[in-house]
């Protein structure tokens, strides 16, 4: 009788839906940031569609249309600064994977400084451009597109700030599950860098 009751109790433990199993190929945090980036690509896509629609409809003899002028050299230098930060954040991740904590700390700190420098130069560019978002359709789409990216840089700097603090406190390790706090912000930062290259090429070069 007792064995029957134990068997019944054991069977009751399996009632309901089966337990969720985590994929062995990708962890939930990485999958989450990748899905978030997909949604952000769609957001930027809407802004790019507006930009190209405006350019085709206006069809001026020159672009940007007069009297707008963009500091291409300054933006190009800023692009190089932000692009170089992808190498430093990658260096930080590879360092902690090899157990090199000092390299990780150096890479994260350099990435934060480069990102902050980029944002400062962009804000300084806004101050000296000579036009605002209220000056015509071009002014609106220019500030909308570059400002959207600037907001993403700011979010990336916030993530990197927490990563730097945790790095100084010794929170990360060489095991994959122990350095997600470096890898996740790194994935987001690479997205920010790639998106700026597209923005720079589209707005300042083409």
Notable characteristics:
206 residues; mainly alpha; 0% strand; elongated
Describe the structure.
With 206 residues, the chain is mostly helical. Helix content is 75%, strand content 0%. The protein contains 6 helices and no strands. It has helices at residues 2-12, 28-58, 72-97, 101-128, 136-168, 180-205. Helix 2 (28-58) runs antiparallel to helix 5, helix 4 (101-128) packs antiparallel against helix 5 (136-168) and helix 5 (136-168) packs antiparallel against helix 6. The longest helix has 33 residues, at 136-168. The chain is elongated and about 60 Å long. Residues 1-12 have low confidence and may be disordered.
SSE map:
Layout: H1 2-12, H2 28-58, H3 72-97, H4 101-128, H5 136-168, H6 180-205
Short synopsis of the structure:
Helix content is 75%, strand content 0%. The chain has helices at 2-12, 28-58, 72-97, 101-128, 136-168, 180-205.
Helix/strand order: HHHHHH
Count of separate DSSP helical elements: 6
Number of strand segments? 0
The pLDDT mean sits at 87
Q: Over all CA atoms, what is the radius of gyration?
A: 24 Å
